[in-house]
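Researcher: Sequence of Electron transfer flavoprotein-ubiquinone oxidoreductase follows. Predict its structure.
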Amino acid sequence: MTDLPHDSTLKKQVYPGFAASEVLYDSDGAVRGVATRDVGLDRHGNPKSTFERGIELRARHTIFAEGCRGSCSEEIIEKFDLRSGKDVQTYGLGVKEVWEVPEEVARPGFVQHTLGWPLQSTALDKTFGGSFLYHMGPNYVLLGMVVGLDYENPYINPYREFQRWKMHPEVAKHLEGGTCVSYGARTLNEGGYHSIPKLTFPGGLLVGCSAGFLNSVKIKGTHTAIKSGMVAAESLHESLSANEQFAIANTEDCEIDPAEPVFEATSYATAMESSWAVAELKEVRNCHASFHFGFLPGLAYSGLSAHLLRGREPWTWKAGRPDAEKTQESADFSPIDYPPPDGVLSFDLLTNLQRSGVYHEDDQPSHLRVKEESAHVPVEESLRKYAGPEQRFCPAGVYEYVPDEEEQEDRGDDEAHALIEGKKKLVINAQNCVHCKCCSIKMPQEYIKWTVPEGGGGPQYPIM
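Model: Prediction complete. Tokens:
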């Protein structure tokens, strides 16, 4: 550990390329830290010549800042029942590109947000979402679309909706003569104020998008995440300083005594509740839910809320059900006829995926696994009832149903790469995964368990 980057003055260490895969608990169930994933395992879980055991990182208090739908954070939320009395969290999927454009097209500082087409085809369409387009110096254009994952139509393809949106003249003119240089995707918390879980538990707390502090109306969460981190630091400093048992020794190596008592930083939750960050979320708490009445009613209510009510309304509309349960059966809808990619403004998914820089070591256990109790769901539920929506909502082409014309390759049952029934099987191309977490949210019955791959694997976003 001493060879890793660290600041000897502040006695902190940074572990780049190490993925936290496991939460550590003591005998009383309190959090005592995290452990990193073992590396150097083959696809069957057997050690290779490069095998290294994961590291246990124990701490007086652990701050979970994994972003939206973090695997360790979700484990913590479930274990300590932190959503008790709260609404379910709802999510959106953001798909984004970065373009390099000619100087005569570049307009650094230009900002454009849109609602409506192509997601909302009628005045009462309940699909929530919108797009953004920013010009950044010297000559980059950052653009993307966010689609609420509480949509009902299983044939919606967020990636292809985004590609279709770029063909609109008011968007295309910003990309004229340009080149797409980067692509990526990530889910966002959209539940808002009433979906924020209890923030503290014995031995740790949640900050940022692990807690759900994103403002979905502004599509902004960095400012609220930073604020939560600042408040957490102040609360922990206050708690640690007030108790001599937690005083940190002035030495280079500080060992954590297993017998040291665990505390819960409840002052953090109190301070956040009275902060401007939570007040901002409370103000717009009903905007997303208002779109459940349709596009125009939602737009009208959001305008009323932003300019007049400002969160003072005495009611709160809640989602009630997770996004996976909002999907309706395919028999009630027709497949969507998306325009084919032209290779200039719009691109097929695999071409764009190369621009994400995604890479995973091929010979490692899959980090995307079908839950044991859900082995029947992909073919019997997802494919039969919903026409396999994971083939469309995944922005990396990870999931596909293919004809079962040959015997399944022997990859080991534990890897869950293919589930076969009749003439169809589900294939999981985990090496394509851009870590957006959409599959853990929108899958019918949430049948996928998302875990971390070997550290360093995933997309590479130099300018996203």
